[in-house]
C-alpha cells in the first residue's frame, strides 16, 4: 500500500474520530440489546443481559450514548463538522457518476470512478441515510421511552418508525463496514489514527488531494 | 364445538360488583386501592390486578331526570386483537374459545400491547423475583380460559345475579341481543348492540343503553394503520433489506474472489483505477 513513499496526510481530528466511535459502539450495543425483541431467533440473547429488564436498561444507557456524537463533534471538532456538512450538501456531476461506476467496481468489474471530494458520493449517501435513520430512531425512541407524555396515536406511530429506522440503519451499517474493511482498508487508518497515506488520498479522494496540494503550494509561496 | 361468546346486557346491571369480586377471587388478584375520586365507581378503569370494573356513568335522561349507566368493563377479546399484533414476542394468542390470552413465559413486559390496545385494557404488572429484582408482565382478563377448559363458565358470569352477564352459544346470544334491543328501544332510543366489525367483532358483545362513546368505547374501532405499516410492511421489509444487503456483500466477496482466481495478481485488493 505504501510502495512509493510512506507519506501520510491528516484526514480527521480527534473529535471527529471519537464521535464516530461513540456512534458506532452505541449503535452496536443498541442493536444487540434489541435483537431478541426484533426476532424470536435471538431470544437466547436475553440471559446475556440478565433478562428482558436488563436488556431494556442496557438499551437505554446506549440510547443516551447514541445521542452524544453530534454534540461531541460540534464541541471538539467544529471545523470537521462544518467540512462534513459542506460536503454532504454538495452534489455535482462527479458525485452522480460515482454510483454506476462504483456498482461495477463493487462486483469486481473494471470501472472508471471519477475523482471524489473529501467524502466520496457513497460516503455522502451513507451520511444522509445515517442522519435520517438516526433522527427517526432517536425521535421515535424517546416517544417509546416516555409514552405517557404523548397521545396514543403518536406512540403507536413511533413503533413502525423505529422499526423502519432500524431496518434502514442496519442495512447501511452492513454496507459501510464491508466497504471500509474489504474495499478500502487504508481508510481504516483514517478513522483510527486520523491519518491516511497520500496514495490513498490520491486514489480515493482525488479532488480533496488536489485541494491539499494547492494549499501546500500556496503555503510554500507565501 | 359451537362458538361461545360473553354477552353483557348493561340494562340489566344493577352495579352490585359481584363480578369484580368473583374475578379477584378466582384469579387470586391482589387488592388495588385507589384514591377516592368523587364517584361511586371503585376504580378509574381496569388495571393489571383488576381485570373488570363496573363503570358508573352519571347520565341525564331526555326529560332531565337522572340515571346510572353501568357497564361491566373488561377485555373484549377482539377477533382482530391489536395487542396480539403488536406483541414482538408472540406471547399473545387466541385460544380455541376465542379468548385472547398472554403467555407469561414469553412476555417480556415491553408494554407494546398496553399502548396498542383498542380499549385501553391491557396493563403491566410489576413483580419481584427471589432476588428482589423487579420484572413486568402484561395482565388482563383471560375470559377465565382455565375455567372454560374445565367446562365451567367465566367466574364473573357465574356471580352475576341479574343475568346481565351471559356466556352462551353465539347464535343464541345474538338473537337474544336483538330481542332485548327491540324491547329497550323505547326507554333508550340510542340503544345499540356493540360488536365492532372494523376488528371483525369481539368475543364479548354488549347491549348498550346509549352510544358507545357515552361509555368511553370507540364508535368504530379499526385495525390501526400504524400497525399495518409496522407489522405487514416495515418488519418483513426491514428483515428482507438486511438480508439483501448481506447478500450483496456476499455476492461482492464471491465476485472479487473469482476475479482474483482468474489471474488477479495484485495484493491488497485495492481496486480504484
TrEMBL record, chain A:
Protein name: Formate dehydrogenase subunit gamma
Transmembrane segments: 21-38, 58-76, 128-146, 166-184
InterPro entries assigned to the protein according to its UniProt record, in alphabetical order: Cyt_b561_bac/Ni-Hgenase (IPR011577), Di-haem_cyt_TM (IPR016174), FDH_cytochrome_b556_subunit (IPR051817)
SUPFAM superfamilies xref list: Transmembrane di-heme cytochromes
Residue ranges occupied by any Cytochrome b561 bacterial/Ni-hydrogenase domain in the UniProt entry: 11-181
Protein's cellular compartments: Cell membrane
Membrane topology recorded in Swiss-Prot or TrEMBL: Multi-pass membrane protein
Primary location: membrane
Record's keyword terms, sorted: Cell membrane, Membrane, Transmembrane, Transmembrane helix
Domain of life, per lineage: Bacteria
Automatic annotation (TrEMBL), chain B:
PROSITE patterns noted in UniProt: 4FE4S_FER_2 (PS51379)
Key words, A-Z: 4Fe-4S, Iron, Iron-sulfur, Metal-binding, Repeat
One Pfam family recorded for the sequence: Fer4_11
Compartments (UniProt record): Cell envelope
Domain 4Fe-4S ferredoxin-type: 4-35, 66-97, 98-127
Keyword Chaperone annotated: no
Protein name as annotated: Formate dehydrogenase iron-sulfur subunit
Amino acid at each position: 500500500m505504501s510502495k512509493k513513499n510512506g507519506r501520510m496526510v491528516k484526514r480527521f481530528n480527534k473529535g471527529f474520530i471519537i464521535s464516530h466511535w461513540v456512534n458506532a459502539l452505541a449503535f452496536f450495543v443498541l442493536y444487540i440489546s434489541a435483537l431478541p425483541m426484533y426476532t424470536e431467533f435471538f431470544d437466547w440473547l436475553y440471559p446475556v443481559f440478565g433478562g428482558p429488564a436488563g436488556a431494556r436498561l442496557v438499551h437505554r444507557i446506549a440510547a443516551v450514548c447514541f445521542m452524544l456524537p453530534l454534540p461531541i463533534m460540534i464541541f471538539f471538532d467544529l471545523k470537521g463538522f462544518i467540512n462534513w456538512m459542506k460536503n454532504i450538501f454538495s452534489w455535482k456531476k462527479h458525485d452522480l457518476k460515482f454510483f454506476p461506476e462504483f456498482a461495477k467496481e463493487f462486483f469486481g468489474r473494471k470501472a472508471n470512478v471519477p475523482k471524489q471530494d473529501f467524502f466520496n458520493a457513497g460516503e455522502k449517501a451513507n451520511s444522509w441515510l445515517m442522519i435520517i435513520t438516526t433522527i427517526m430512531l432517536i425521535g421515535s425512541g424517546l416517544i417509546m421511552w416516555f409514552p405517557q407524555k404523548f397521545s396514543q396515536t403518536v406512540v403507536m406511530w413511533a413503533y413502525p418508525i423505529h422499526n423502519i429506522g432500524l431496518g434502514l440503519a442496519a442495512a447501511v451499517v452492513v454496507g459501510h463496514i464491508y466497504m471500509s474493511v474489504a474495499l478500502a482498508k487504508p481508510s481504516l487508518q483514517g478513522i483510527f489514527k486520523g491519518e491516511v497515506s497520500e496514495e490513498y488520498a490520491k486514489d480515493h479522494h482525488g479532488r480533496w488531494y488536489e485541494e491539499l496540494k494547492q494549499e501546500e503550494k500556496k503555503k510554500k509561496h507565501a | 364445538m359451537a362458538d361461545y361468546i360473553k354477552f353483557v346486557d348493561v340494562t340489566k346491571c344493577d352495579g352490585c360488583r359481584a363480578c369484580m369480586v368473583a374475578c379477584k377471587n378466582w384469579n387470586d388478584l391482589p387488592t388495588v386501592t385507589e384514591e377516592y375520586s368523587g364517584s361511586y365507581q371503585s376504580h378509574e378503569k381496569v388495571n393489571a390486578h383488576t381485570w373488570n370494573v363496573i363503570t358508573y356513568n352519571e347520565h341525564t335522561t331526555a326529560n332531565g331526570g337522572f340515571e346510572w349507566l353501568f357497564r361491566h368493563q373488561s377485555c373484549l377479546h377482539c377477533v382482530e386483537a391489536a395487542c396480539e399484533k403488536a406483541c414482538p414476542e408472540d406471547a399473545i394468542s387466541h385460544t380455541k374459545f376465542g379468548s385472547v390470552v398472554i403467555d407469561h413465559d414469553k412476555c417480556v413486559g415491553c408494554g407494546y400491547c398496553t399502548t396498542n390496545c383498542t380499549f385501553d385494557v391491557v396493563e403491566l404488572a410489576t413483580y419481584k423475583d427471589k432476588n428482589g429484582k423487579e420484572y413486568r408482565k402484561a395482565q388482563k382478563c383471560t375470559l377465565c380460559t382455565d375455567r372454560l377448559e374445565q367446562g365451567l363458565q367465566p367466574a364473573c358470569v357465574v356471580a352475576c345475579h341479574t343475568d346481565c352477564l351471559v356466556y352462551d352459544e353465539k347464535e343464541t346470544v345474538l338473537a337474544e341481543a336483538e330481542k332485548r334491543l327491540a324491547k329497550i328501544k323505547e326507554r333508550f332510543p340510542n340503544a345499540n348492540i356493540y360488536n365492532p366489525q372494523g376488528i371483525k367483532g369481539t368475543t364479548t358483545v354488549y347491549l348498550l343503553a346509549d352510544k358507545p362513546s357515552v361509555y368511553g368505547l370507540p364508535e368504530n374501532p379499526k385495525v390501526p394503520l400504524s400497525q399495518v405499516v409496522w407489522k405487514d410492511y416495515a418488519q418483513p421489509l426491514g428483515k428482507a433489506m438486511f438480508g439483501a444487503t448481506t447478500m450483496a456483500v456476499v455476492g461482492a466477496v464471491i465476485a472479487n474472489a473469482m476475479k482474483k482466481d482468474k489471474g488477479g495478481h495484485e495484493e491488497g485488493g485495492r481496486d480504484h483505477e
